[in-house]
Design goal:
The structure holds 2 protein chains of 2 kinds.
Chain A (H helix, E strand, L loop, with lengths): L20 E5 L8 H12 L3 E4 L6 H11 L3 E6 L4 H14 L6 E6 L6 H7 L3 E3 L5 H11 L5
Parallel strand pairs in A: 1-2, 1-3, 3-4, 4-5
Helix pairs in contact in A: 2-3
Chain B lengths: L7 H19 L3 H13 L2 H10 L7 E6 L6 H14 L4 E7 L8 E3 L14 E7 L11 H10 L4 E5 L10 H4 L2 E6 L6 H5 L9 E4 L7 H12 L17 E4 L8 H14 L3 H34 L3 H23 L1 H11 L5 H13 L6
Helix pairs in contact in B: 1-2, 1-3, 2-3, 2-5, 4-9, 10-11, 10-12, 10-13, 12-13
The chains are: A alpha/beta, B alpha/beta.
Amino acid sequence: MQSEQAGSGRYHPPMTDRPLKVLIAKPGLDGHDRGAKVLARGLRDEGFEVVYTGLRQTPEMIVTAALQEDVDVVGLSILSGAHMTLVPRVCALLRERGLDDVLVTAGGIIPDEDVPALKKAGVAAVFGPGTTIATVADFLRANARPRD
Amino acid sequence: MAETRASAPGEIAATQRAGALCDAALAGDRRSLSRLLTAVENRTPIAEAALRRLYPLAGRAQLIGITGPPGAGKSTLVAALIAELRRAGRPVAVVAVDPSSPITGGAVLGDRVRMQAYATDDGVFIRSMASRGHSGGLSSATTAAAAVFDAVGFDVVLIETVGTGQSEVEVAAAADTTVVVEAPEMGDEIQAIKAGLLEVADIIVVNKGDRPGAHRAAAQLQAMLADTPHEARPGRPAPKHPEVLVTSAATGDGVVELVAAIDRHRSVARDPNGDATRLRRAEAQVWAVLVDRLHERVRILEGVRAMASAQALDGVHAVEHAGANIAAAQNSTAAGELLRAVATHDLDPYAAADEILHRLMGVASEP
C-alpha cells in the first residue's frame, strides 16, 4: 500500500476545535478593497479560515456565498456610503435563507449616527478606521455562535 | 480522549440529525447540503452517519481534478469550465482547496473570487476548503465532499487543488480525469521530463495562451511526451498519454476543446485504467477511516491507562505497526474484494474499514 495516495505526511486527527470560518465581502460599487484584504490576512494570522469574494458583490451573491461556504461570520466592508441600503438588505436576505445564526459585522467608512440603525437591522458590531485586528478577532471569537 | 467519543445516545442523535440533513439535501435544500459538507470537513459523527447513507448513491458524477502551480490560472479555468458546462445545462459543484497556515491554522480561501459570476446560479455550488495540514494538494475531506455532491445529483464535480509544485499527485486518485494546468513560463524540456505531476496528468493545459511562448511550451511538452512507452511494464499501471491543449481561461479560448477532451477521456476511462483510479480512490478513503479508527483506539487506551508520554509514543508505533499489517492485508484477496466493493459504491468506506479491522485484530468498530 502506498500511503502517499491515502494522504501523505503526518496524521491529522478530526478537528474537535475547528477554525471559525469568516466571509469577507465587498457589497456595492466601491472599488477599494485594501482594508478587506488587510483584514482577511490579519484574521488568517489569528487562525480563522477566511473566504474572500472580491469586489462589487450584490447582496444576493454575498448571501449565496455565505450559504455555500457555511460560514460563521459575514464581514461587510463598505466605503461607498451605500451601507444604509446594502447592509440591511444582506441581513434580511440572510434571515430569509435561514442563516439567522450567522454573525454579521460591518466596517469601512460608516458615520456614528448610522450605527444604531445598522444594529437594529441585525449587525452585531461596526468596526471603523483604526480598529485593530486583535479587537475584531476577539469580538468574533466571543460572539460567533457554536454550531454543530 | 475517551470523552470525545460520542456516547450511544449521542450517536443516535448524530444519526438522526444526519438522516434529516441527508433527506433535505437530497430533496434539493442547499443549506442542508452546506451543513453536511461542514460535518464532512470536520469529520464529526454526523459525517460518518451521512456518508454511510450517501456513499451508495454516489458514483455517477464526473469528477474532474484541476491542479497545477500557483498563479497558473486554475480558478479562472474552473470559472471558464463552469460557464461551458452550464451552457450544456449540467449541474456543477466545485471543491476549491487553498492552503492552511502551518503556523496559525488560519487560511485565506480566495479561489471563489474568480467564480463569483456564478454565485447566484442554482445549478452551481462552490465550496472552498482549507487544506488543514493535509499535504497532498487536497484536504483530507475533499474526496468525501465530492461524494456528497455526487450523491445529491451534481453531474460534474470540479476539484481544484492548492497551488501544487511537482509532487502533489493525490488528486489523480480523487478525480476520474486529472487536468494539469501550466503557465507558458513553466520551463524547458527538462521540466517536462521530470517525474511527478506531469506523469499523472490525463490532460495537460498550457493556460494564458495569449502570452508569448504558450504554443512553444505546448509543443515542447508534446515532443517530450511522445516518447512515453505505450505498454505497461509488469506490475505497473499503463503509462498515460495526455493530450496537450492551449487555453486562455480569461477569454474562454480553448475551453470548448478542453471540455471535449475531458469528455473523450471519460469515455476512454471506463476501461481498466478508470477502474484502477476508482480502486485507488476507494483505497485512500478506506485508509483514511482506518487511520482515524486506529488513532481513536490509541487515544482511548491512553485515557484508560493514563499512559505516560513515553508510553503514548508506543501507541503511535502500534498504529504504524497496524498500518503495516493493513498493507499486507490489502494485498490479500479478501481486502481486495472489499476495496472493489467500495470502488463500485456497493460498500461504504466505513463498513470496509471496520471489516478490515475486524479481520486483522478481531476488533469490532466499537472499542
